[in-house]
Design brief:
The complex is a heterodimer of chains A (619) and B (387).
Chain A lengths: L5 H47 L1 H12 E6 L6 E2 L5 E14 L6 H8 L7 H13 L5 E5 L4 H9 L7 E10 L7 H4 L1 E4 L2 H6 L11 E5 H5 L1 H5 L3 E7 L5 E8 L7 E3 L3 H12 L4 E7 L5 E7 L4 H5 L4 H9 L8 H4 L9 H11 L7 E4 L2 E4 L2 E4 L7 E4 H7 L2 H11 L1 H10 L21 H8 L5 H8 L9 H13 L8 E4 L2 E2 L12 H16 L16 E7 L6 H6 L13 E8 L6 E7 L5 H18 L6
Parallel strand pairs in A: 2-10
Antiparallel strand pairs in A: 1-8, 2-3, 3-4, 3-5, 6-7, 8-9, 10-17, 11-12, 11-21, 13-16, 14-15, 17-18, 19-20, 20-21
Helix pairs in contact in A: 10-23, 14-16, 14-17, 14-21, 15-21, 16-19
Chain B lengths: L1 H4 L2 H6 L7 H7 L2 H21 L8 H19 L3 H28 L8 E2 L4 E2 L1 H18 L3 H5 L1 H20 L3 H17 L4 H21 L2 H11 L8 H15 L10 H4 L11 H34 L3 H25 L17 H19 L11
Antiparallel strand pairs in B: 1-2
Helix pairs in contact in B: 4-5, 4-15, 5-17, 6-7, 6-9, 7-9, 7-10, 7-16, 7-17, 9-10, 10-16, 13-15, 15-16, 15-17, 16-17
Classes of the chains: A alpha+beta (619), B mainly alpha (387).
Chain lengths: 619, 387
C-alpha cells in the first residue's frame, strides 16, 4: 500500500516533521505568552479586589452580615400619690409558630384549636402569614393568653411542634374607666406619628405610644430608650449570633398627684348623674387630687386593640365618653362666674364693699330688660346676700359699673380664658370676651348690654371645670396656683408649690369668701352644707343655659326639668373647704343637671370624703 | 497487553524503545503527580470549608472521586500513545453520538437540562467528556498534516466540522460555557498547528458579524447574563447578586484572608454555589490574595508542565494532545476565576479538581492521564498516515 520505501519515507517525514515542529514551537511560545498575559490580568484583578479595594469590600461584607436590631424599652409605670399603680406593664403571653419546626402547619393548628379556640378566619390569616414569612420567622398565633391557656399549650407541647410561648408586655390599667381620662391609653403608632417623630423605635412591630391623657403628655418620660443588639445574620436573614448588645432603658416611673381612692369615689358619685365632671385640687399647691369625667371608657380595651363596633359606639354616644370633660369640656359658668364679676368690681373700684342694689326682679338696660332668676326680686341686696341668693340684678349692676375689660382682666388673673397648663393633652382654653376680642372676632364694637350677660356667666364666656377649680383655689388661697398632675418623675419631685401672691386686696378676697360661705350657710346650697366641725364648705352654685329660654317660655314659667335632657341647663358648683383655712377646692359640673344645687350635692359628698382622706396631709 | 504496548511489529521496525510496565511507571513524572495531588487536596479542604467544617456532604465524596480518578489517571498514563491515536476517532465519534443521543433523549424524555448518564459515583455529562475527545480527535487529524496540508483551506474543513458539530450540540443544550470552551480549545489547536492568522481573523470577523444573529437565538436567561455582566447593578438581587456577592467575599478577604473556615460571607451563605462554581471565591476569602495567587500558580505549573510534555514528545499526535489538553486546563481555570472576579459573564465552568462535581473531575483527570501518557511515550515515533 505504501508507495515509498520505508527508509526514504521516514527521512522525508522527518524533514517535514522538523518544519511543523518549528511552527508548533513558535506558536506554543505565542500561546504561552498569551496565557501568561491572561494570568497577569487575573492576578491584577485579584490585587485590585483584595488589596486596593479590600477595605470597601470588607465594609460591604459587614453590611451584609451585621444587622442592627432595636430592643423595645419597658414603659414606665404610673402611680397615684400613695403608690397605687394606675398604669403598668403586664406580661402578655403570646403563642407563636415557627413553620420550619413543624411537619405540617395545618395539622398543628388543628391540634391547637382544641386548646385555643381558633376561628377559620384566624387560621387563614396564620396560614397566609406563614406562607409570606421565611420558614424560621415566628408567626403570631394568639396574643393575651390566660395563664390556663399557657399551661395547656405547654403541657401539650409534644403534640404541637413549632408552637412556642413568648412573653411580651401589654399596658394594663387596673382602675379601668375610673382613670380613663387622666391616664389615657396607649395604642399602635400610626403613619402620621411615625413621620412626625423620626424615632426608629416607633417602627418596631407592636410598639405602642400614648394617645391621650398622661400616657400622651408624658410620652417621652414614660417611653424610655430603645436598646440595640448587633446580630450576625446569614443571607436568608436568620440570626446566627449576637455580636454586641446595648440594653434598653426602661421609661421613668411617674407618680401623680391623683388620689386613686378619691378619684374612684368621685367617679362613682358622678355615675349617679348622667354625665359630668369633678375636679378636686389643693387650694395652695395646685395638686390635682381628682380629675373625673363621667362616663369614661376602659383603656385596657384600647391598649389591647379596640374592636371597631365598640369604637363607633364610644364615638357616637351623646355623653361623649372619650372626652375629658374636666379639662376639655367648656361650659358657660353661669353664676359660678359671679365671684369674678364681684372681684372685678371691687378691684377696679367700681363698687365698694358696702355696695347695695335694689332688686325687683328686673334690670332695665338701654332698650332691653334683664331678668333676675327670681321673679319679683330679692329686695335690697348687698354683696354677701347677693352671693347667698345668687341675685342676678346685683351682678348686672356690678358688671355694668366695672365694664367688660375690668371683668376680662380679673377673669384672666383668676385663670380663665387660657389653658391652665395642666399636664394633659386636649385641654381647652375657654373664652373670656373683651372689647378687643369682639372687635377682632366679629369686627363689631362691644355693646354694654353684653357686659350684663357676661356678669352672670352667660353670653360668650365659656370655661372648663378645671378652670373653675383654679379660680376657686386662687380666691381661696390668694395665690396664683396652677394645676398639675405630675408629682414625681423617677422619684424626683416635680411639683411647684411657691406660687406668687395675686394682686388682689385681702379684704376684697375676704368679702368674696364671706359671700361663698353664705351660699352654703343659708343660701342656694344650704342643703349641701357640711356639718362636720372643721370641714365646712363654702361655695357657689351656677346653672348654665344650654338653650336660650324664650320670652314665651319665661311667661309660661317653663322649668328646666320639663325640657328634653339635652336642652336642660347644666348644673355647676364650685367650693372650697374648710371655710376658715381653705385647703381643698372642688368644681363639679353636672351636664343637664338643671340646677347648681344638684352639683352642690355632689360637691358635698366629695369634699367630705376629700377632707376625711386628707390626701394633702401626706404631701 | 496489546493496548499497552501497541503493535510490537511497527515499533520494532522504527527502533522505538519498547518500555516495560515498571519502566513506564518509573517514567511518570513525580512532580506532575505531586502538583495534581496538591490540587486535589486543596479541593478537599475547600469542600470541607464549604460545608462549614464538615466532611459531609461534599468533602468525603470529593476525596473518594479524586482517589478513583487518580487511579484512572495512572492507568491512562500507561496506555501506549499509539493505541490512543488509533482510538482517537472512535472515541471522538462515540462521544459525539453520546452527546447527540442525550440531547435527543433529553428532548424526547422531557428531562429538560438533565443530560447526563449515571455511572454510580458520578453522573457523566458527555459535554464535559467532549472537551477531551475533541482534543483527541483533532490531535489525530493533524498528526498526519504537513504544514502544506494545514495551509490548504479545504484540508481544514473536516477538523472545523469536528469542532462545530459538538459545539452546536452543546450550545443547543443550552450550555454556553462548555460550548465556548470547545470552540476555544479547537481554535487553539488550529493556531498551534500553524493555521494562518488571517484565517482566524476572517473567522472572527464572521463570528462578530453573526453576533446579532446569535443574540436573536439566545435564551432570555443567557441574554440577561450578558446584560447583567455589563452592568451588575441593574439586578443586585437577581443574576447580578452572584457577581456582587462574589466580589464582596473575595475583596473582603484582603491580603492574608480571614483564615481557614472563617470566611463569613461564604459561611453565612451570601456566596452562592460556593461548593461548585464559586469555590475559588471561598478559598480567596479565607486565604486572601496570597492564597489565591498560590492556587493560581499551582494551576499555572500544571499548565506549563503540559506544554513542556507537548514539546518533549517526538510524535505530532502526542504534542498536539498534550498542548491541547494544557490549553483546555488553562481555559477551565481562566474562565472560572475570571467569572468569579467579575471579569467575564457568569458561565457555568467549574474550577478543575476544586469545584464539587464528578464529571469535570473525571474529564480533567483523564486529560492529565493522557498528558502523562504522552510523557511516558514521548519517544514513540509514529509515521504519518500509519499508526
Amino acid at each position: 500500500m505504501d508507495p515509498c520505501v520505508r527508509g526514504a519515507c521516514e527521512a522525508m517525514s522527518s524533514d517535514r516533521d522538523a518544519d511543523r515542529f518549528r511552527t508548533l514551537g513558535r506558536r506554543t511560545a505565542m500561546l504561552g505568552g498569551l496565557q501568561l498575559g491572561m494570568l497577569g490580568v487575573l492576578g491584577a484583578r485579584m490585587y485590585w479586589l483584595q488589596v486596593l479595594e479590600s477595605e470597601r469590600y470588607q465594609m460591604l461584607a459587614d453590611d451584609n452580615r451585621i444587622n442592627l436590631r432595636l430592643l423595645a424599652p419597658s414603659r414606665g409605670t404610673v402611680l397615684d400619690r400613695h403608690g397605687t399603680p394606675l398604669a403598668l406593664n403586664e406580661r402578655n403571653y403570646r403563642a407563636l409558630i415557627v413553620s420550619e419546626q413543624t411537619p405540617s402547619v395545618e395539622r398543628t393548628l388543628s391540634v391547637l384549636s382544641g386548646i385555643l379556640p381558633l376561628g377559620d378566619q384566624e387560621k387563614q390569616r396564620i396560614i397566609k402569614e406563614v406562607a409570606k414569612k421565611r420558614a424560621f420567622m415566628p408567626v403570631l398565633l394568639r396574643e393575651n393568653l390566660t395563664w390556663e391557656q399557657v399551661a395547656a399549650v405547654e403541657v401539650n407541647a409534644p403534640d404541637l411542634p413549632g408552637v412556642s410561648i413568648d412573653v411580651g408586655e401589654v399596658r394594663s390599667y387596673p382602675l379601668g374607666d375610673t382613670m380613663s381620662h387622666v391616664i389615657g391609653y396607649v395604642s399602635a403608632v400610626n403613619e402620621a406619628e411615625l413621620k412626625d417623630e423620626r424615632e426608629p423605635v416607633l417602627s418596631l412591630p407592636g410598639f405602642k405610644i400614648g394617645k391621650s391623657g398622661i400616657e400622651k403628655h408624658h410620652e417621652l418620660n414614660l417611653r424610655g430608650q430603645a436598646g440595640t443588639t448587633q446580630v450576625e445574620v446569614n443571607a436568608y436573614g436568620r440570626t446566627i449570633r449576637e455580636l454586641a448588645r446595648d440594653d434598653a432603658k426602661a421609661g421613668h416611673r411617674l407618680t401623680l398627684t391623683i388620689d386613686a381612692e378619691l378619684q374612684k369615689a368621685a367617679y362613682d358619685r358622678l355615675r349617679q348623674e348622667e354625665s359630668g365632671a369633678a375636679v378636686i385640687m389643693d387650694a395652695h399647691t395646685g395638686a390635682v387630687y381628682v380629675l373625673a369625667s363621667f362616663p369614661g371608657f376602659d383603656p385596657n380595651v384600647f391598649s389591647r386593640g379596640i374592636p371597631l363596633d365598640l369604637w363607633e359606639e364610644l364615638q357616637s354616644s351623646p355623653t361623649l365618653p372619650l372626652n375629658n370633660k374636666a379639662s376639655g369640656g367648656v361650659y358657660p359658668p353661669g353664676s359660678t362666674f359671679k365671684m369674678t364679676t364681684a372681684l372685678a368690681g371691687l378691684d377696679s373700684g367700681a363698687i365698694d364693699l358696702n355696695h347695695t342694689v335694689h332688686c325687683n326682679g328686673q334690670y332695665p338696660f338701654g332698650d332691653h330688660v334683664f331678668h333676675c332668676w327670681k321673679k319679683g326680686g330679692h329686695g335690697s341686696v348687698n354683696l354677701t346676700y347677693a352671693f347667698a341668693q345668687s341675685c342676678d340684678c346685683f351682678f348686672y349692676d356690678v358688671g355694668r359699673r366695672a365694664g367688660i375689660d375690668a371683668i376680662w382682666a380679673t377673669a384672666t388673673k383668676l385663670g380663665f380664658g387660657g389653658k391652665t397648663g395642666l399636664d394633659l393633652p386636649y385641654e381647652r382654653p375657654g373664652l373670656i370676651p373683651s372689647q378687643a376680642w369682639k372687635k377682632k372676632a366679629t369686627g363689631d364694637i362691644w355693646h354694654p348690654g353684653e357686659t350684663l350677660s357676661v356678669a352672670i356667666g352667660q353670653g360668650a364666656v365659656v370655661v372648663t371645670p378645671l378652670q373653675l377649680a383654679v379660680m376657686t383655689a386662687r380666691i381661696a388661697s390668694g395665690f396664683a396656683v396652677e394645676p398639675h398632675l405630675a408629682k414625681e418623675i423617677q422619684d424626683v419631685a416635680r411639683e411647684r408649690t411657691d406660687w406668687p401672691r395675686l394682686a388682689f386686696k385681702q379684704q376684697h378676697l375676704d368679702a368674696i369668701r364671706l359671700g361663698m360661705t353664705a351660699v352654703t350657710q343659708y343660701g342656694t346650697a344650704a342643703r349641701s352644707q357640711i356639718k362636720e366641725p372643721g370641714m365646712q364648705m363654702a361655695g357657689k352654685t351656677g346653672s348654665a343655659q344650654v338653650r336660650r329660654i324664650t320670652a314665651a317660655e319665661r311667661e309660661r314659667g317653663v322649668k328646666s326639668e320639663q325640657l328634653p335632657w339635652k336642652d336642660r341647663d347644666h348644673g355647676l358648683f364650685v367650693s372650697y373647704a374648710p371655710i376658715d383655712n381653705p385647703r381643698y377646692v372642688c368644681a363639679v359640673v353636672c351636664e343637664h343637671g338643671n340646677h347648681g344645687a344638684t352639683a352642690a350635692l355632689v360637691a358635698h359628698d366629695l369634699m367630705l370624703e376629700a377632707q376625711k382622706r386628707d390626701p394633702g396631709a401626706i404631701a | 497487553m496489546s493496548w499497552i504496548s501497541a503493535s510490537s511489529r511497527t515499533s520494532h521496525a522504527f527502533g522505538t524503545p519498547e518500555l516495560s510496565l515498571s519502566a513506564k511507571v518509573w517514567q511518570i513524572s513525580r512532580l506532575f503527580v505531586m502538583l495534581v495531588v496538591a490540587l486535589g487536596a486543596v479541593g478537599v479542604l475547600g469542600q470541607y470549608s464549604a460545608a462549614n467544617g464538615h466532611m459531609e456532604p461534599w468533602a468525603s465524596r470529593h476525596a473518594l472521586r479524586f482517589g478513583i480518578c487518580f487511579v484512572a489517571m495512572i492507568g491512562i498514563a500507561l496506555i501506549d500513545v499509539r493505541f490512543l491515536a488509533r482510538m482517537a476517532y472512535p472515541v471522538y465519534f462515540a462521544n459525539l453520538l453520546l452527546l447527540a443521543g442525550v440531547e435527543a433523549y433529553g428532548k424526547i424524555g422531557g428531562l429538560g437540562a438533565q443530560r447526563w448518564i449515571n455511572l454510580g459515583f458520578v453522573q457523566l455529562q458527555p459535554s464535559e467528556l467532549m472537551k477531551i475527545a475533541l482534543v483527541l480527535g483533532l490531535a489525530r487529524w493533524f498528526h498526519d498534516a504537513t504544514l502544506e496540508d494545514v495551509r490548504r483551506p479545504t484540508y481544514l474543513l473536516a477538523p472545523l466540522a469536528m469542532i462545530l458539530l459538538p459545539v452546536g450540540l452543546v450550545l443547543a443544550q443550552p450550555n454556553l460555557g462548555t460550548g465556548l470552551m470547545l470552540l476555544m480549545v479547537g481554535g487553539a489547536i488550529f493556531f498551534l498547528v500553524g493555521v494562518r492568522l488571517w484565517k482566524f481573523a476572517t473567522l472572527i470577523l464572521l463570528g462578530v458579524g453573526a453576533v446579532p444573529l446569535v443574540w436573536r437565538f439566545m435564551k432570555d436567561y443567557q441574554k440577561r447574563r450578558v446584560t447583567t455582566f455589563l452592568d451588575p447593578s441593574t439586578d443586585p438581587l437577581g443574576a447580578g447578586y452572584h457577581i456582587t456577592q462574589s466580589k464582596i467575599a473575595l475583596g473582603s478577604g484582603g491580603l492574608w484572608g480571614k483564615g481557614y473556615l472563617l470566611g463569613s460571607q461564604s459561611h453565612l451563605n451570601f456566596l452562592p454555589e460556593k461548593q461548585t462554581d464559586f469555590i475559588f471565591t471561598l478559598l480567596c476569602e479565607e486565604w486572601g490574595f496570597w492564597g489565591g495567587t498560590a492556587l493560581l500558580t499551582l494551576f499555572a505549573m500544571v499548565v506549563a508542565y503540559g506544554i513542556f510534555v507537548g514539546l518533549r514528545s517526538r510524535n505530532q499526535f502526542g504534542r498536539i494532545l498534550a498542548l491541547g489538553l494544557s490549553v483546555n486546563l488553562f481555559l477551565y481555570v481562566f474562565i472560572n476565576t475570571a467569572m468569579v472576579m467579575g471579569l467575564i459573564p457568569v458561565v457555568g465552568v467549574p474550577l478543575p479538581l476544586i469545584s464539587f462535581g464528578g464529571t469535570s473531575m473525571m474529564a480533567v483527570m483523564m486529560g492529565f492521564g493522557l498528558i502523562l501518557s504522552v510523557l511516558v511515550h514521548r519517544d514513540s515515533r509514529m509515521r504519518n498516515g500509519e499508526i
